[in-house]
Amino acid sequence: EADIYQTPRYLVIGTGKKITLECSQTMGHDKMYWYQQDPGMELHLIHYSYGVNSTEKGDLSSESTVSRIRTEHFPLTLESARPSHTSQYLCASNDMYEQYFGPGTRLTVT
Amino acid sequence: QKEVEQNSGPLSVPEGAIASLNCTYSDRGSQSFFWYRQYSGKSPELIMSIYSNGDKEDGRFTAQLNKASQYVSLLIRDSQPSDSATYLCAPGRGDSWGKLQFGAGTQVVVTP
């Protein structure tokens, strides 16, 4: 079973607030990913990292930013939340064989 | 054209029958292929991986891969109501090990 954690699981926040979605894994994986998924829609890669101090933008343009200061930690930050950011955010990490997903954070911006 | 195409759903399957899911992909460099199951409101969970042409069986699930045709499929035998979910096809990207391309998914509904 994958040991990948996301907090908070649910977040309702007002427009203009700064938010950080936390993601951590205890498996020592170098590769980590953030996906965005709207209800009933496909997953879109928004950020990825191949190790400490390595971050890249994914396929879907996002106003969010990420950092990777420690192997186990890959937080995502929105400086100023907007209703268009309402979505589910999924964090994942890879070993040689499999990509493991965290439980997700459902974000609602009012 | 999307990079990963899956049959549009929902796919309605009687309990005990076989569900057949299809997926085509455009990246000829893909070497790894994954099927994920996603229940509504939950995160994806891996159910099958396949790397070589041919069939791979794991319990009630069989994955089939044909790289020449850029086609991968998933069969679910003896379908159960608990199999009702969206199934995501995810080929690995040829230019970057570990990165996946996800299809839009096929929703399977198993009816008692």
Mean pLDDT of chain B: 94
Determine the oligomeric state from the structure: heterodimer
Determine the most extensive contact between two protein chains. A-B, 17 and 16 residues
Quote the beta fraction of chain A: over 45%
Average per-residue pLDDT of chain A, rounded, comes to 94
Order of helices and strands of chain B: EEEEEEEEEEE
Helix fraction of chain A, binned, reads under 10%
How is the biggest beta sheet of chain A arranged?
7 strands, mixed
> Rounded to an integer, what's the Rg of chain B over CA atoms?
13 Å
Task: Describe the model.
The complex is a heterodimer of chains A (110) and B (112). Chain A is built from no helices and 11 strands. By secondary structure, chain A is an all-beta fold. In chain A, strands 2, 4, 5, 6, 9, 10 and 11 form a 7-stranded mixed beta sheet that branches. Chain A is globular and about 40 Å long. Chain B contains no helices and 11 strands.
Brief sketch in words of this structure:
The complex is a heterodimer of chains A (110) and B (112). Chain A is 0% helix and 50% strand.
Summarize the helices and strands and which ones pair or pack:
The complex is a heterodimer of chains A (110) and B (112).
Chain A: E1 4-7, E2 10-13, E3 19-25, E4 31-37, E5 44-51, E6 54-57, E7 65-66, E8 76-78, E9 87-94, E10 99-101, E11 105-109
Parallel strand pairs in A: 2-11
Antiparallel strand pairs in A: 1-3, 3-8, 4-5, 4-9, 5-6, 7-8, 9-10, 9-11
Chain B: E1 4-6, E2 11-14, E3 19-25, E4 33-38, E5 45-50, E6 54-58, E7 61-66, E8 71-76, E9 85-93, E10 96-100, E11 106-111
Parallel strand pairs in B: 2-11
Antiparallel strand pairs in B: 1-3, 3-8, 4-5, 4-9, 6-7, 7-8, 9-10, 9-11
Tags for this model:
heterodimer, A: 110 residues, mainly beta, seven-stranded mixed beta sheet, four-stranded antiparallel beta sheet, 11 strands, B: 112 residues, six-stranded mixed beta sheet, five-stranded antiparallel beta sheet
